Amino acid sequence: MSRRSAPRERTTASGRLRRVLAIVPWIASQDGPTIDQICRRFDLSRAQLLSDLDVVFMVGIHPFTPDELIDVVIEDDRVWIRLQPGAFLRPLRLTPQQGLALVASGASLLAVPGTDPAGPLARGLSKLAAVLGIDDPDRLGVDLGNVADDVMDVLRNGVARRRQVELDYYAYGRDERSVRIVDPYLVFADQGQWYLSAWCHQADDERLFRVDRIRSARELGTGFDPPSEVPAPIVFHPRGDDPRVTLELGPDAQWVLEQYATESTEPLDGGRWRVRMAVSAPAWLERLLVRLGDEATIVSRDAELAAVDAASTAERILRRYEG
Fold it and tell me: Measuring CA to CA, which of 66, 78, 90, 163 is 20 to 30 A from 145?
């Protein structure tokens, strides 16, 4: 199967945003660093940096007049960024939940190459952590699933070296284990989990694999040519022929609206919701219904899902434990 040549770097939109958020405060704190200095510090090409700065000078607050936009000046190969004062005149009041989310997000930004570990961001996070009562900000961590180090090393090496990888993989949705040969494109984190974006030769299509469900991984000697552009990965992208189900959810099941892709949502009385969803596999819907219990009622479903029943699924799970 033919592939086009790979670009020098493949970056998702969220990755680029994290990079820009790290670059802007550093440049603003300096007295006109040169473009080469910035590129070396953040491991960027000149084209990447100029492209990011083209976006930054359009950022600001309402009504987006020149005095409310970030000021970016490039002159004689030097760069100045001035943060307009209007954006900082309004007092910022955060709830504890918002403050904790800000500390966690800021901690991830400090991991971007080139970020100053003792710079304004680090100092601001330290002050915010003190206000929140977090004595040691380093104790705040993000759990991205139980992933074996050797598996992650094989996947990352496969991406970097453009080598095919053999996976021993457990498919949660279909409740089956299989061995697959893949062309690994990208390893990324999303909503607390690690994923591998790859071309699966068994499916003859692009697929996403949860890394914590990979039992083992082995790099093969076969190389591959990745596509010239790897699109921003989407954890679940429903197909037109996927079966659909409509559920009525109770007030304690509203997390489903945030965690899973829905095609339509309708608020009902008493904090209940009616949602329509695409289903990747019947086993996935069975597990979701068992998890929701009395908080979910099936309103309608396609014929492919007619056999799905939460009670029988729960009994089948219990028999496994009894065995």
Answer: 163
Pairing between β-strand 273-278 and β-strand 214-223 as defined by DSSP bridges: unpaired
pLDDT in tens, 81-116: 887 655 555 555 667 777 777 777 677 666 555 667
All residues at 6 or more sequence positions from 203 whose CB lies less than 8 Å from its CB, including other chains: none
Task: Please list the residue range(s) of the chain that carry CATH number 2.30.30.
Answer: 149-223
Q: What's the pLDDT tens digit per position in 155-190?
A: 988 988 899 999 999 887 667 788 999 999 888 766
Beta-carbon contacts of residue 309 (< 8 Å; ≥ 6 apart): 286
The whole-angstrom separation of Cα 161 and Cα 285 is 38
Q: What φ, ψ does residue 174 adopt, rounded to 5°?
A: -100, -5
**Does domain 149-223 sit in CATH 2.30.30?**
yes
Give SS3 for 306: coil
